């Protein structure tokens, strides 16, 4: 397999990313055997078991004390190699946007953000580049809110990212997943990681606490620090 469709899916923890991916793959005949999923998380993840039970080949990368998006971009070459070894034509990466500062999205590759409609009406305004730079924003659990709440949530998303396509998908029934699957069918492919670039430059470890400092006080703070202004 020379080229692989690489799709990045990011979203806050428990927003329904895995359920959306499962329903999307299931809605395309034959895709289960042609794609692999790699889940990036910080401490632990049971999602690989869900993929395996559904007949989908999956792997898990635990970032530990690193940002999962930094961990992802440091390992993308290995991920593509794994997909080629398994002769997949599609590689989906799933990562939790824990700090809202980073995003795994890559130029030219399809980028998807998943948000939970129950997470709060202003969640889109609080979400960083993983939403702002996504091609598609999937909203889950919208069956549990009113039509008015759905439309306000959509409006808030479009305030942050007016170019994104907004899809409402039910992660339990799969309603709406076929629309996402059709969009993924149009996603571009890549042959190797050398041509890839991030859509957003990720903040690195810039202060003492990023580097492991535990002591409190200005004497122990180096690098980039910002002080709160209290009135």
UniProtKB/TrEMBL annotation:
GO biological process, one term: protein maturation
Any single Pfam family the record assigns to this protein: cobW
Domain CobW/HypB/UreG nucleotide-binding: 7-167
GO molecular function, one term: zinc ion binding
SUPFAM superfamilies per UniProt: P-loop containing nucleoside triphosphate hydrolases (SSF52540)
Protein name: Ni2+-binding GTPase involved in maturation of urease and hydrogenase
